[in-house]
Amino acid sequence: RELGAQNVPSLDVTKKCQLFVEDLVGQPTEKVTARSGNIFYINDIANAIAKDYADPLTRCRDSHYPEDGGKGMSQVFNGTKMLLDLPSPPAARVDGTIYFVNELLQDSLGAYFIPERFFLGSPFVEGGVEGPKQSDGKILYALGRAAQPTDAGFIINDEQEIIPTSMFAWSYEDISSTNELDCGLTASSAKYGSLGPNPLHEKAQGRMVYAVPLIIFMDDVSGNILKQWNKHHAIYMLNMNLPCEMLEKEFFVQFITSSPHAAPMELMRAMKDSLCNAAQSGIVTWDCKDEEEVMLIPSGLFLAGNNPMQAEECSHTGLNCNYFCRTCDVGGTKEYKASEEGYNSIFKSGNLRTPEKTTKDIQHQFEAAMKSGATTKVQSAVSSTGVRDRSGLPATAESKITAALEKEFEESLRGTTLNDTMNPLLGMNGINMHLDMPTEILHTILLGVVKYFWGQSVFLLEKAKLLHIFQSRLESVDKDGLNTPC
Q: Is 195 helix (H, G, I), strand (E, B) or coil?
């Protein structure tokens, strides 16, 4: 009003408009209180993923099935993890009928089949059977096992086979409406499950079900636009059903949470709880492409970040410890690594770390903290394994007796279990945080090996008074195309 602006809404009208919008699209932000008392806010993961399917910009480029691309790989869904390691996409639709994994069906030849994985492949596979092509020319296949009905029950074949989903003819519902399933499974086939329906069958209520793998990224950033550093930890996520060329754009990056005071693992615990709740209940949303309601099941694919953050997410001490690799147990004491055998060993991969082994190491450190000489014992355990859980509780002073330590420890847990106190990523479904973290190129290569190589090279050239010759030759290099995007 002081500036002479016309039709400026009052504060009361602005608040009413905000409430109206929240009622219309929902309130995605939730308040979280950590066990330490830190308060922060998180955007609901289910709400963020649901909007991807209601938005034509993102929905029309989704690829819901991993792709067997042979030796080549251009997208994340070409990788082995989505193709073989993660749970399969739960359902496939053929001629309007929805078929779920681990459910008995019958193909067009009358044979029984239990699909275990759905994936996209080239138009031809072994046997020369070709199915209907997707929009990108790929065909949807099912990897599973044939089933043979007998008087003693269904016998499930030990050998897996691949058939195109176009051969699917009768669904589990069609078969269960008869008496064919009354015989059950034979004892030798019970290891493959049961003849019951997939749990998602009832939960979906006739909706198509899609899997949504996510990349979770966390790092420390500055909360200020100016140069002064104001440290915040922030978490983002990416929908990996989208192609890489779209994920490179800021529009497709989903903000989850940020806090200047909450610890990184407190933020990760809230993220994990939001993701697990969404996966457990399923996300029912509107699919703007097929114009129908669908159910989405999110899961973690891998974790991204720089080296220090990834070490913390792995409950690893970092690059300066005796066992410096967060992926395997390569390394040893300083004396061992200085020996010929030890020096040669650091260029070979050690035994891969696992979440289960890391959990046991952390539990051992907690147990050591309850005994006399706790500080020395915990430091020794950290030094001998390279495992350190920053989301846990500090070791109590040595002067405390065991009974007092246990009582104080139970009070510190505040009614939770030890597993609830440790790194939340250790028990996250679909994620092995030791393996599912891509190497961070910037600090590991460009600001690591490359920077020190160039620094040493320039030092030697300058010492030999040859730097001016090197500069002349470097300036003569053709610079055209250096900034061309990959």
A: coil
- As a whole number of angstroms, the distance between CA 348 and CA 415 comes to 44
Cα 54 from Cα 289, distance rounded (Å):
8
The span from the CA of 215 to the CA of 302, in Å, is: 5
Tokens for 43, please give them.
């955007």
Task: Note the Cα 471 to chain centre separation in Å.
Answer: 45
What pTM value is reported for the model?
Answer: 0.77
Residue 105: count of CB within 10 angstroms of its CB: 26
Please state, in angstroms and as integers, the Cα–Cα distance from residue 226 to each residue in 219, 239, 264, following that order.
19, 31, 24
Which residues in the chain come in under a pLDDT of 70? 1, 123-137, 223-229, 371-374, 386, 388-406, 408-409, 413, 415, 418, 483-486
Q: And the tokens for 389?
A: 């859980």
Looking from the CA of 86 toward its CB, the CA atoms found within 13 Å total 29
Copy the structure tokens of residue 376: 């020395």
Tell me the pairing of strands 139-150 and 112-121: antiparallel
Strands 292-304 and 208-222: parallel
How would you class 153 by CB atoms within 10 Å of its CB: exposed for 0-12, middle for 13-18, buried for 19 or more? buried
Q: What angle do CA 134, 139, 143 make, to 5 degrees?
A: 140
